[in-house]
Recover the amino acids of this structure.
């Protein structure tokens, strides 16, 4: 494995207007300015994914910056199968999952986390057939989702992020989180039910 | 409705069921109000998440954000390609490899004289000399009639 690009890129490029692919090629040739441009373009997205998982600004900044360092070191491995930003998102997700594991935030050791698989009050709750976000502006939906997500356990939040935001299939989520597909299905089920209940509470507090 | 049945409805909504099973669940949801209610709730949660993913911006300037990345990239710990960690006592092995080869050669060269003293003369001989190192071995062939010695040093 080659760690960091070494050969300087000879072709001159207009950094602000260059396509991501051109910047990546230049960065793979050792052009740090091209890499800086990529960081500038996509830092919010990479930071956002870290923040959505960690729910802590300092950790999110640190982990997203670490993801960019890893991205630079492994840039030769990027072959363009997915977009550069998708590739970088995977890097930051893996770092966040590692951090959560180290901090034992994903472990099923508390009652709250045991509920991740067995369902807490959601198990007994009748289904909510009213759409909790109906008639809301998109910005308002985002705010409510943010508020509801912040009240979920790490295990529930992570499974929703990987499945709903990243669009990963059950088996991919299971692989990333190191669980069985059955566990992921249960977590996803109760995470959705809990989220629906939280959104309904918000709807009742702040009707449209 | 039991838990497994609920998970089947969810898998159907997520498109994770094969066609025959998906048709079966669709028919069940059609005729069972409880199954239909659960499917509705799960769909609402799913669509709310897909439409309303929150957006966050890094709470620091672009320059500040980049400067920390640049520093980490430039630090000797991260700037170099990640080489596999050296095994313990690597320095010892580095010195013992040439020393082992030299010792084996010296032994080979001394063999004819020793053999002359303690053994009857032979017209040819093949000797194997084991290196004291696990990862180095040598094999020696000596032909008295032709007066040559060949040593193979094998570094695994």
């Amino acid at each position: 494995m080659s760690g960091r690009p070494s050969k300087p890129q000879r072709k001159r490029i207009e950094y602000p207007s260059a396509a991501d692919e051109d910047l990546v090629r230049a960065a793979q040739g050792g052009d740090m300015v091209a890499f800086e441009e990529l960081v500038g373009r996509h830092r919010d997205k990479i930071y956002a994914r870290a923040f959505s998982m960690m729910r802590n600004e300092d950790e999110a900044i640190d982990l997203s910056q670490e993801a960019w360092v890893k991205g630079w070191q492994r840039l030769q491995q990027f072959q363009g199968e997915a977009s550069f930003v998708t590739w970088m998102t995977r890097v930051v997700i893996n770092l966040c999952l590692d951090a959560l594991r180290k901090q034992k935030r994903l472990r099923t050791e508390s009652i709250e986390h045991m509920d991740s698989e067995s369902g807490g009050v959601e198990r007994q709750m009748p289904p909510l057939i009213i759409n909790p976000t109906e008639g809301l502006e998109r910005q308002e939906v985002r705010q409510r989702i943010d508020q509801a997500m912040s009240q979920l356990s790490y295990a529930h939040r992570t499974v929703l992020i990987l499945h709903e935001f990243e669009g990963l299939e059950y088996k991919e989520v299971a692989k990333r989180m190191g669980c069985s597909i059955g566990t992921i299905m249960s977590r996803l089920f109760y995470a959705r039910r809990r989220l629906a209940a939280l959104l309904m509470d918000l709807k009742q507090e702040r009707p449209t | 409705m039991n838990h497994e049945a609920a998970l089947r409805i969810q898998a159907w909504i997520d498109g994770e069921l094969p066609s025959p099973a998906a048709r079966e669940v669709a028919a069940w949801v059609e005729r069972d109000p409880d199954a239909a209610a659960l499917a509705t709730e799960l769909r609402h949660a799913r669509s709310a998440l897909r439409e309303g993913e929150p957006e966050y911006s890094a709470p620091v300037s672009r320059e500040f954000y980049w400067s920390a990345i640049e520093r980490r990239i430039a630090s000797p710990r991260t700037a170099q390609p990640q080489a596999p960690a050296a095994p313990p006592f690597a320095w010892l092995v580095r010195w013992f490899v040439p020393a082992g080869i030299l010792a084996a050669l010296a032994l080979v060269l001394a063999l004819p004289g020793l053999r002359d003293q303690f053994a009857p003369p032979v017209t040819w001989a093949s000797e194997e000399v084991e290196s004291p190192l696990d990862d180095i071995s040598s094999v020696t062939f000596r032909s008295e009639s032709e007066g040559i010695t060949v040593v193979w040093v094998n570094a695994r």
